[in-house]
Amino acid sequence: MMEMRVMTERKRRNSIAAASAVLGGVLVLSACSGGDGGGDSSSSPKQSAQAEAVDKAAAQDTSDAKISITPGNGADNASINNAAKVRVTDGTLTHVSLTTADGTAVKGTLAADGKSWSPDGQLSRSTTYKIAATAEDAKGRDATENATFTTVSPDNSFIGNFTPEDGSTVGVGMPVSINFDKAISDKKDVQSHIQVSSTSGQQVVGHWFNSQRLDFRPQDYWKSGSKVTLKLNLDGVQGADGVYGVQQKTVSFTIGRNQVSTVDAKTHTMVVQQDGKTVRTIPISAGSPDHTTYNGQMVISEKYKKTRMNGATVGFTDSDGKGEYDIKDVPDAMRLTNSGTFVHGNYWGAPSVFGNSNTSHGCVGLQDVKGAKDPNMPAHWFFDHSLLGDVVIVKNSHDKTVQPDNGLNGWNMSWSDWQAGSAV
User: Fold this and answer.
1) Where in the sequence is the domain holding 136, given as residue range(s)?
2) C-alpha–C-alpha distance, residues 67 and 304, integer Å
């Protein structure tokens, strides 16, 4: 009985092994068989011909419309003015979308002929955008194009803050002054992409005071009534290693009547002339013998109906470190230098001071009242009759001539020296 059990067990195991071998053979055959059941995996001539016909038909059905996107896909440091431009040839655009990485849509306008699309405004710096465009050819077949790009970052771009403002009317002494937010090493390339012109036909030349300030002016004061235009074509211009301009802007301003006022520190007077004719002589009080007023040609750069003047901000302090003066409501004040020289109203001085003595800390004081509300006061009249860009000349003061870069005062530099500071 024992022997018969052993023989039966062996027979069962052999049957399982045989079945496994057959099953394994089927699996191997299934994994390795070709299209005809053989071992070759290549397509048959019939199948190759069919695939070729399908490919050919697909190619013939491709849209003729060709879409181009500026900048190209993957672009970095892209322009904030000229990026995301979409154009099509041999077709018309049917849909364009521009979104930020988080899905925020950017508005744009499709040209009337359907051939181009562009954003409605300037893009943001250091932002990734995605653009998708669809066009249709004459046969109604669609073409699509997609691109992702990143605009230039603040660290890799520069801008120029300029004076005066677009559309303003200014005095004859107002230069075009541009202050860049980063140091410019390629001054020639930057200056060559800035144009300043006047309807007067006057030659206008730029002068670099340092790596961040570029001013433009003619040899003599601007002609009254002329229009001056500033064009900044700095988009993509390299100002320094890896730093590019982003501005593409045109501004213009008008030159008003010619007003030049001459302060005589010795006679304590200011003669106001418009278009060469004296319109008023005003008693003044200039800087005291200890705090004299700069001599030279100065340009009104700011106007404040009332402002605070604290001596500590300009270096006039007492033994305790406090300002020698702190007047919180100086009336009818107009800035002449960056270092703190103003022509302004004075309500705290005795009326007898004006026209007789110099008592200020370097400013030019005119009689006024507290609050700057009396139109009969000389300071009030002068404030109302002055423009930004008007010239105030100081003479006969026991001080040096103001530095050309201290305010908008480049007129104190000879024309030859001014031209020498141009990079082009």
Assistant:
1) 66-152
2) 55
CATH of the domain at 242: 2.60.40.3710
Of 207, 268, 361, 363, the catalytic one is 363
pLDDT at 47: 60
**CA within 13 Å, CB half, 391:** 28
Maximum CA extent, the chain: 147
Question: Is 386 inside a domain boundary?
Answer: yes
Q: Which residues contact 349 (CB under 8 A, 6 or more apart)?
A: 285, 359, 365, 367
Beta bridge partners of 117: 86, 110
Q: Catalytic annotation on 32?
A: no
**Quick check: 6 pLDDT over 50?**
no
CB-CB neighbours of 195 under 10 Å: 15
Cα–Cα distance measured from residue 307 to residue 326, given in angstroms and rounded to the nearest whole number: 11
> Could you say which of 344, 361, 380, 398 is catalytic?
344
Residues 108 and 174 in one domain: no
Looking at the fold, whether 195 and 301 belong to one and the same domain comes out as: no
What's the structural domain count of the chain?
3
Active site (annotated) includes residue 344: yes
User: What does the pLDDT look like over 311-343, one tens digit per residue?
Assistant: 666 666 666 666 665 788 999 999 999 999 999
Q: Is there a single domain that holds both residue 205 and residue 273? A: no
The three-state secondary structure class of 331 is strand
Residue type, 376: N
Q: Tell me the whole-structure pTM to 2 decimals.
A: 0.79
